[in-house]
Amino acid sequence: MVAMAKLLLVLAVTILTISMVESKLKETNNAEEQHQLERVNGQGGQKNGQGSLQSSQCPEQCLRRCSQTRYKKSCLFFCLKCCRACLCVPSGYYGNKGECPCYNNWKTKRGGPRCP
């Protein structure tokens, strides 16, 4: 019985520790993303209206943008993220990123394009 109580205590401490580590990792990733967005926008990460969309228009525009890809789920995820930050989605299904400088210049840690 005592061994079972010790095991449960160790398990609870382990779960709590894992939860704290995951929380800290999310904070770090969010801070890195915010810093990168600040560099792209050039105005402290404010949603400075690079584009003329309202964030409520993003789902419709991203559905259009991602309609011809095989990878719809990831395309929509990243398109929505980029649209909400940049308030712009390029025309067409591919390319035309020059129309949205924020959308075009937001890169991954490896330097690849973040926005589809």
TrEMBL record:
Q: Which family does it belong to?
A: Belongs to the GASA family.
Region entry Disordered: which residue ranges? Answer: 39-59
Presence of the UniProt keyword Signal in the record: yes
Alphabetized InterPro entries for the sequence? GASA
What protein name does the entry list? Gibberellin-regulated family protein
Keywords from UniProt, A to Z, are: Signal
RNA-binding is among the record's keywords: no
Which positions make up the signal peptide? 1-23
